[in-house]
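FAQ

Q: What does a record look like?
A: Structure on top, sequence underneath. For example:
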């Protein structure tokens, strides 16, 4: 489960999940829902595999979301389906999506950057909670 929340002039992303892998996938979906009006309109026509090494959970989350944002900004890839595995030294993920099409993918917010402000990945109520503020 994920949600967007207002934060002064920025936007907050929040997700909860029973495990870290699901939490990182939910945060990726949350980022996509901040970027486009209808993430369900993104077709899984392109598959990628990705790995990020980082032992710190908060920094790993920031790196993960930054990479998704970079793929959108530089390669115009809009990814919306995620299979993530998180370990002690980083993550491995399979990602599916398609090339951004402005006629089919109405932008919701222009996400400029993933920030470290109020960044958290914590155990919460028998599961996990993550929050990050994005610059819009």
């Amino acid at each position: 489960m994920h949600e967007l929340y207002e934060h002064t002039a920025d936007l907050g992303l929040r997700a909860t999940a029973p495990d870290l892998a699901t939490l990182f996938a939910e945060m990726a979906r949350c980022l996509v829902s901040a970027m486009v009006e209808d993430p369900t309109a993104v077709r899984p026509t392109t598959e990628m595999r990705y790995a990020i090494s980082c032992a710190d959970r908060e920094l790993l989350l920031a790196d993960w979301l930054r990479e998704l944002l970079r793929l959108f900004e530089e390669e115009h890839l809009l990814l919306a389906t995620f299979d993530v595995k998180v370990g002690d030294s980083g993550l491995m993920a399979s990602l599916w999506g398609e090339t951004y099409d402005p006629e089919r993918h109405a932008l919701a917010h222009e996400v400029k950057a993933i920030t470290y402000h109020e960044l958290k990945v914590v155990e919460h109520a028998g599961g996990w909670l993550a929050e990050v503020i994005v610059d819009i």
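Q: Is there anything notable about this one?
A: The helical segments are 20-35, 57-75.
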